[in-house]
Structures are given as C-alpha cells and as structure tokens.
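Revision sheet: structure tokens.
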Amino acid sequence: MIAGSYGDFLVYPVEQHSASGAASLSDALRQTATYNVQRAITRADGVEDAGAEALAAALRDANCKLHTLNITQNAVGDAGAEALAAALRDANCKLHTLDIAWNRISVAGAEALAAALRDAHCKLHTLDIAWNGISDAGEEALAAAFRDAHCKLHTLDIGVNDVGDAGEETLRGSLIL
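Predicted:
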C-alpha cells in the first residue's frame, strides 16, 4: 500500500483512491513503528468527506507525525473541513501545512477552519483553501482568525473563492504588512 513512500514523504497510491483508501492511509499514519510519514499527498483521488474524517482521526493520534497534508481536488466538503478543523484543535495534531484547494468547501467549512486557527493548540502555518466556495462570510471568518493572538498562520491562499470586494477588504485590513 505505501509503495510511494520516500523516507518521511508519501505520495498516496492512485489505485487506492476513495474514502476507504483514505481510511487505510489513516491507519498507516498511526503506525510509527512501521512508517515515519511527515508529508502526504493524495490528489484527485476521491477522498471526499468520509476520507477527510478518517485522516482527521489519524491527525488526533499521538503516534501520527504528519506535518503536511495535501488533499487537493478530492471533493472534500464542509463535513470534511469541520473534521480537519477539529483535529487542528487537538494537542496531538502536528500539522503545519494543509492544502485543501479545489474541493467543495463553503462558508461552514471556512468558519470551522477559522475557529481552529484561533485555538492555542493549532500549529498550522500554511493553509491553501483556494478554488472552493467560501464567499465573503468565510473570508471574514478567516480575517477574524488572523487578528487572534493564537493564530500562527503566515501563508493563506484563498484565491478564486466567490469573494467580493467586501471580503477582500476585510481580509486586507487584518493583515500586517
């Protein structure tokens, strides 16, 4: 299953796509005696919400060493984003980089992620949530997270998200240039 593992880096096998494949990856991430995976990519593999929920469970496991997760183009929606946000608030989660671009995340998912960014346990430095549907309300929630003292985020990609001038202005006002 982990034929694409290179030291601490894993390119998830395409033949394993689906939520059940993500559950298998989740199990592997918890087995530190077997794998020392710190970065994982599974793109356009049909992970969906159920797979994101399985990966979130692994992120909450003390044995999981994952620092970077890229699940771009996987039909992850708000339920998956909410599960990942809950994992980010867990003290065991070591994730620094999350790429969830080109999915189906809307305002509810963006708000859940924004709440996680305000949590003292969240270690996330980089978030790519481009090409979703977070709209102005989602961007405003992320802007509020930037103003929070606990937020450690320094890189955010929110391009192409149905955000209007009001949302862009709110976020721009939150940035320290």
